[in-house]
Amino acid sequence: MPEIAIRPAVIADIPQLIALDHNYTSDTVWQMEVQQDEGQINVSFRQIRLPRSARVEYPRAPSLLNENWQNRSSLLVALLAGEAIGYISLMQDTAPLTTWTTDLVVMRRVRRNGIGSALVLAAQEWAKAHGSTRLVLEMQPKNYPAICLAQKLGFDFCGYSDRYYANHDIALFFAKPLR
């Protein structure tokens, strides 16, 4: 992993964070299946390998970061040689004693170098220091790299919300107790 620093965002970081490529590529998705029988509904997710890599649009407009970054409980920034290369957005009060991660973005050229993991670990420390006993990550079922990251870091699938994002995509939720 490159030598990075993680700190709370300042106003001067916001243009660099907005300029990051928020989109991602995925070879695998989690497909939701619903089976409804009399008196019972079963919902399951299964991994589906795509016939080719798909570029997926980020579900939130990066430009909105400029308007609402101060409304977040925390926005942690990863820096490499003074350059903002990623961020994680945190919200409290979404659920009791829980910190909610709404955005995790890493600059394309430095992805898969442990920066996303470092941001999630920093978020865990921030959440514990601010009284949370659980951290929740949200992501699209198309974001297989984020699903793998969550599982690698010990997060468990804890639910979903249909039509959660403005583009009507499902959101998957992964949670981890903080000790």
The second-level CATH architecture is 3-Layer(aba) Sandwich
Structural class: alpha+beta
Low-confidence stretches: none
Shape: globular
Secondary structure tally: strands: 9
Determine the oligomeric state from the structure. single chain
Could you describe the 3D structure shown?
- This protein has 179 residues and is of the alpha+beta class.
- The chain has a single domain, classed as Gcn5-related N-acetyltransferase (GNAT) (Aminopeptidase, 3-Layer(aba) Sandwich).
- 20% of the residues lie in helices and 45% in strands.
- It has 4 helices and 9 strands, in the order βαββαβββαβαββ.
- It has helices at 14-19, 64-68, 115-129, 144-152; strands at 5-8, 24-37, 40-56, 74-80, 83-92, 98-106, 134-139, 156-161, 171-177.
- The protein has a 7-stranded mixed beta sheet with strand order 1-4-5-6-7-9-8, with helices on one face. It has a two-stranded antiparallel ribbon with strand order 2-3.
- The chain starts with a strand and ends with a strand.
- The mean pLDDT is 92.
List the helices and strands and how they pair.
Blueprint: E1 5-8, H1 14-19, E2 24-37, E3 40-56, H2 64-68, E4 74-80, E5 83-92, E6 98-106, H3 115-129, E7 134-139, H4 144-152, E8 156-161, E9 171-177
Parallel strand pairs: 6-7
Antiparallel strand pairs: 1-4, 2-3, 4-5, 5-6, 7-9, 8-9
Which key phrases capture this entry?
alpha+beta; 179 residues; 45% strand; Aminopeptidase; 7-stranded mixed sheet; two-stranded antiparallel ribbon
Task: Summarize this structure briefly.
The protein is of the alpha+beta class. It has a single domain, classed as Aminopeptidase (3-Layer(aba) Sandwich). The chain has helices at residues 14-19, 64-68, 115-129, 144-152, and strands spanning 5-8, 24-37, 40-56, 74-80, 83-92, 98-106, 134-139, 156-161, 171-177.
